Amino acid sequence: MARTPTKKRRPAARSGTRAKKPRRRGVSRPRGRVKRRWLARLIAFGFLFSLVAGVYVLYLDHTVRTKFEGKRWAVPARVYGRPLELYAGARLTGEQLQAELRRLGYRKVAHPRQPASWSQSGSRFLIRTRNFQFWDGAEPEQYIDLRLDGGRVAHLSQADGAELALLRLEAPEIGSIYPAHNEDRVLVRRDQLPPGLVTALLAVEDRTFHEHHGVDPRGIARALWANLRAGALVQGGSTLTQQLIKNFYLTRERTLWRKLNEAVMALLLDARYGKDEILGAYANEIYLGQDGSRAIHGFGLASDFYFNRPLGELDLARQALLVALVRGPSYYDPRRNPKRARKRRDLVLRLLAEQGAISQAEARHAAAQPLGVTDQRGRGRGNFPAFMDLVRRQLHRDYREEDLTSEGLRIFTTLDPWVQAHAEEALGDRLGKLEKWNKLPAGKLEGSAVVVDAQGAEVLALVGGRKARFAGFNRALDAVRPIGSLIKPVVYLAALMEPARYTLVTPLEDTGLTIRGGDGKAWTPRNYDRKEHGQVPLHRALANSYNLSTVRLGMDMGLGRVADLLRELGISRPVEPVPAMLLGALSLSPLEVAQLYQGFAGGGFYSPLRAIREVLDAEGRPLQRYPLTVRQAVPGEAVYLLNRNLQEVVSEGTGKGLDRFLPSALKVAGKTGTTDGLRDSWFAGFTGDKVAVVWVGRDDNRPAGLTGGTGALQVWGDMMRRIAPLSLELISPEGVETVWVEPHSMMRSGEGCEGARPFPFIKGSAPRIHSSCSRGGESGLGGFLRDLFQ
User: Fold this and answer.
1) Of 209, 329, 348, 373, residue with least CA distance to 279
2) The pairing of beta strand 107-108 with beta strand 117-121
3) For this structure, is 205 an active site residue?
4) Looking at residue 235, what is its pLDDT?
5) Which three-class secondary structure state does DSSP give residue 77?
6) Which of 427, 572, 625, 763 yields a CA-CA distance of 20 to 30 A from 752?
């Protein structure tokens, strides 16, 4: 019989001991295995982290190298004005010379020993110039002796007496064409940084620059302690390398992640590049101020912006001020906060003395100096917005787009700052007086002015409005307004080009007429004085700006002929050949009018107005430009007759009001222009060396209440009085002869005959019938037959 199995009993636990629980089957606690598993995970995570961090550091390293070794900055194009040329006999006043020297940042001293300095004793000037690279060669530094007499250069030589035929002062910088982000720089190399500036910068911003590796923990602690002791922020904790990284590579956000990136990139930059390279980059990158929308970066541009001098010409006090601005250009702005800026500058000087970089005496002497900041904001301040607008347009007109994308261009223009300043002043002053005299609302009148070199067609000045230094609507280029009687010289020129039919003494009918257009509408012109003047000689009709005789003459010549002549003289705008065109129902800008009248002043030659002389690339090579065509547009003989007539406009006609402004010996040719409702007031004219156009009116096109003679002529005369141009001495072409004519009968007369006047005629067109005075009493048919068969 089988046995029933029995359960084994556990032995009873001993007294005082805890019975062990039975271990469950299949369950264990491998503690060593768990630890090994977590250690593996930690190693894997560490490896992955190191791999990611390594890749990220490599990425940062690539970022540092790519930008630092590539093209670091988009350098703006520098724009220069016309250089002042000095030679014996050149027209120059002491006032003009001093203004040019101040504009260039030259210093007046007792004895000029440094470049860009000058002294004066009466009419004698001793000047040490700067060297300058022009488009046609270098102008070396010179020490010259210049003497003035009677508004001209009477003597020019080297200070040691050596002969000097010609000297050009450096071209004044008048502006820049900036990259899209509106940052500006004057790049300097490390060896161009003044030692005093470098010493001050390191003393204040990074004492251990040459010892640390991009980040300086001890410097951070030291700066913290110094700031606590001073109770103010006197030292920064970031190294120059970190500051460069922050400004050059990173954003302005204040986060721990950005600070970590900054530190890593500073270490990488310091490891890859030398201290001089880093310092040079810092000197060009550091932000030091704001000029409107233009950011001022780098010590080179800041020196020009605040002191109107190159960096190498700064003394210790000015160098210390630039270093002071590093801490906060806006907070320590020396123009807005001069006391705050001076306190910071003096702190920089005190730190230099404490560190033994300068003596206490040098620090006290520099601290006693004024800040030295100029009122004008540097030579590249962009104070000529209207002219710069023209430069931009002509760059795209005359040069290839692919060439203009190059950076660091140097653009030499035709702007004469002396003429520009007088044009701006005359326009601003006269508009205010015109409003007051004519009881017009203050600030409603606007105007523009263009001044051109009469022979070279170079634009010397361009004023776009009464607030000339502010960018805005450029009336000189974009105010396209009816020109009124300014078109009349073109009508009369068309007639004078046919000498067999018309001369200056040909009688014209100044009587009423009505013209019906193609649409059947009648047009009845009238004279300004609402009168008819009967039969008048051609020259008097233009001098007095008679409308009726002009319309009759224009219709006889043909509207198409007048329109063609406008195109020949450089007007590219479409011209609608309608009768009203003859009295100025043609709208042009002041610059286009200047182009038209430059053709008269140039003897009938068409020369495109230009604002650019030359453009150099960053390596100093001239850019190739599209050719500018200069051509004989109209015969010189006819233009000479017209110009004599335009001189009569000023001496006896509608332009006679100029005698209030200009000396009687100064000969001028010109024409007034007035439009319907007295909305536009014009004057266009020329002297021996200048062509100038002035427009006055209102932007809202409401009546200004001014004729050409009571408005624009006043501005023109005041402007020319200030500029003091040459007299217009017309030279008769070979194909022109002068004949004395009796004014009433228009017969040929003699020089001694009563009332006789000399008139120019294209040869073969002068009157052939002699007056009784010139033929000893024989006149009429007998005189005619005698002349006919002589």
Assistant:
1) 209
2) parallel
3) yes
4) 56
5) strand
6) 763
In the set 139, 173, 183, 205, the catalytic residue is 205
750 with 709, same domain: the answer is: no
Domain containing 325: what range? 179-367
Is the CB of residue 298 less than 8 Å from the CB of residue 188?
Answer: yes
- Number of folded domains that form the chain: 4
Same structural domain, 358 and 444: no
Same domain, 459 and 541: yes
CATH number at residue 336: 1.10.3810.10
- Among residues 723, 756, 776, the one where a domain terminates is 723
CA-wise closest residue to 448 among 427, 429, 430, 433 = 427
Residue 779 has pLDDT above 50, yes or no: no
Structure letter (DSSP) for residue 627: P
The CA distance from 307 to 326, in Å, is 16
Cα separation, 625 vs 545, in Å, equals 42
Residues 432 and 453 in one domain: yes
Measured CA distances, 46 to 41, 50, 52 (Å): 8, 6, 10
Residue 779 annotated as catalytic: no
What gap in Å lies between CA 426 and CA 723, rounded to an integer? Answer: 10
- Give yes or no: residues 689 and 762 share one domain: no
Per the structure block, which two tokens stand in for 592?
């286009």
Tokens of 106: 């030259």
Q: What whole-number distance in Å separates Cα of residue 98 and Cα of residue 574?
A: 46
- How many other CB atoms are found less than 10 A from the CB of residue 334? 23
Q: Are residues 753 and 718 part of one domain? A: no
Cα 200 to Cα 193: distance, rounded to the nearest angstrom: 12
The residue written with tokens 């209440």 in the block is 705
The Cα 633–Cα 642 span in angstroms is 14
In a domain, 292, yes or no: yes
Question: Among residues 121, 144, 171, which one ends one of the domains?
Answer: 171
Q: Which residue in 117, 303, 448, 485 is the catalytic one? A: 485
Kindly report, residue by residue over 106-136, the tens digit of the pLDDT.
999 999 999 999 999 999 999 999 999 999 9
CATH number at residue 683: 3.40.710.10
Find the length of the chain.
Answer: 790
Tell me the C-alpha to C-alpha distance, in Å, between residue 727 and each of 231, 666, 730: 70, 5, 9
pLDDT in tens, 134-188: 999 999 999 999 999 999 999 999 999 999 999 999 999 998 887 655 667 788 8
In a domain, 689, yes or no: yes
Neighbours of 312 (CB within 10 A): 15
